[in-house]
Glutamine-dependent NAD(+) synthetase (Alpinimonas psychrophila), 579 residues
Amino acid sequence: MPILRLALAQTNPRLGDFSGNISTIVGYVQRAAAKGADLVAFGEMALTGYPIEDLATRPEFLHLARTELEGLALRLLSAGLGSTTVVIGFPNGPISLPATNAAHSPTAIAHNAAAVIQDGRVLGIYNKHHLPNYSVFDEHRNFRPGDSVMIVHVADCDVAITICEDIWRDGDLMTSIADVHPGLLLVINGSPFEREKDEVRLPLVRRRAQQTGAHVAYLNLVGGQDDLVFDGDSFVVNASGKLLARSPQFVEDLLVVDLELPASRTNGAPIGAGFTVVQAGRPSPFHVALRTPSPVERNDDNREQIWNALVLGLRDYVEKNGFPSLILGLSGGIDSAVCAALAVDAVGAERVFGVSMPSDYSSDHSRSDAEDLAERLGIDLRSEVISDLVAPIEAQLALSEIAAENLQARIRGVILMSLSNAEGHLVLTTGNKTEIAVGYSTIYGDSVGGFAPIRDVPKTLVWELARWRNEAARRANLREPIPEASITKPPSAELRPGQLDQDTLPEYDVLDALLDAYITKRMGRDEVVALGFDAFTVDRVIALVDRAEWKRRQGAIGPKISEMAFGRDRRLPVTFVRS
Ligand SMILES: Nc1ncnc2c1ncn2[C@@H]1O[C@H](COP(=O)(O)OP(=O)(O)OC[C@H]2O[C@@H]([n+]3cccc(C(=O)O)c3)[C@H](O)[C@@H]2O)[C@@H](O)[C@H]1O
Ligand SMILES: Nc1ncnc2c1ncn2[C@@H]1O[C@H](COP(=O)(O)OP(=O)(O)OP(=O)(O)O)[C@@H](O)[C@H]1O
Ligand SMILES: NC(=O)CC[C@H](N)C(=O)O
């Protein structure tokens, strides 16, 4: 049986940075070729970054992508890497610019595609069949579906190529692939992280292996792109679904494996309508057997995965947008403490700046806990007392009650944005998913900021993550980054004397369970009540959630970690009458 030496390049592209992405790609092909790989695969849209959204409707962008793809093929050839077969995701648009500007056309003009490159040329292109159009995906808006099945003949083996959503759907594509009996099904992905999604992907891939009788190589992107985090976690299973090799999550990686596959049935010759067969590899030279690495030991602790996803999402937002540093208000509470710890893990303590902004109602511990946090994290902390800034506005406008309370949060927002303008920091807004759900924040106040690291993290999970992060530090014999007092104190906005969150909101464990039913599980009011929640509380919470939609529309983006994040995942009208 022939042996295919397969390399999966789990890269972190920067969207639109063709020259940076191509340098990375050439580097990975070089490393893979040095290990004798016959085939090197890159992720979905690894050339451009993913998702490209409406850039897929811009002819100039598509034309540039095509030119860069052809340039990559020539660059690989001139670097002596021409004989290695490369599969890479890119947007496949019209080769020449149309006379009229197709960006104004309502019809998609491009395919979400994978190119097969060898000997300085693009040998073939596979266009994704199944375009996801749910959750965060809008691929029917931006792409046309493909209709041909692709088999690449390489190293005496047949390799079927698919892209991400293709393997999530039963039907003709999977059946057609099974009929050809390829040795390997290669699926290149841009599959965003969600907690527990790995528990869906692996069984799905195993099922496809058994259905097609082929080994399956699942290759994912890694990195943060706006509100999405790609976790990598690429892996290979054999035809019975046994896990052979696996890349780590949340870092770039090159996974090289030897796969003993059935000999090619196509021999690179055409096999009929609906199929594209690409003759790529020459018979592979004699391989010195490779010791396939045993699959990376996975720590299935959900909290660790979520923490790492949040860190990567924040780091890549900062680095890919070129921010030198981060700034956030430190109240001594748990949300700002967790955001600060994430920030330090993402970019290092020297690039994180905290501001304590006490008011007349701030407790002593709000200051001392913020100081303790800053000291533990090794970050800069300055103090800006807000009382003298609040007083004249409050007096001039004769503000009282909620208007006066919110003014304090707004003055803090002004301070943070002013320091951002003056010193160049990106402002982090510290709102968690629970508060964002019920609108428990001051618009243009504590919701001010450019990135929201925990916007998809419910309050009860914020506490769990804080405990996990401290445990991780203890296990490594390091100092716990988050003061215990910030974890155990009752949450308070401290906008009036003695204010507690629970004066206004149900207990957080009840509230989070209720929100999970209404938001994540999309249950109706009666279904939520039937779960055992008090009907009055259900009505009140649902009303708060629905009424806060306008605030969410204006909120900063942040990493998605759940199956139902606010934003692209959950799109509801602002103006509507609830019946
Ligand atoms: N549909 C809609 N479209 C456009 N605008 C709409 C609107 N509905 C209300 N508005 C506007 O919204 C304003 C009210 O919103 P906003 O000014 O935010 O104020 P509001 O939501 O009334 O009050 C903020 C709440 O958040 C709490 N808070 C504040 C700060 C921090 C924390 C914390 O613990 O982290 C909690 C605070 O205790 C209070 O309960 C109205 O004056 C109105 O102008
Ligand atoms: N005294 C303060 N000094 C600095 N920042 C503050 C202060 N009070 C509030 N903030 C900022 O406003 C955000 C909202 O804080 P608030 O205390 O109102 O509620 P919270 O949602 O419980 O947050 P936290 O758990 O961080 O206290 C804080 O996370 C912090 O960034
Ligand atoms: N890019 C895609 O096609 C992704 C869709 C797929 N179901 C996933 O999230 O893994």
Observations:
- The chain has a mean pLDDT of 94.
- The chain has two domains: 3-279, 302-505+548-553.
- The chain has 18 helices and 20 strands.
- The first helix runs from residue 18 to 34.
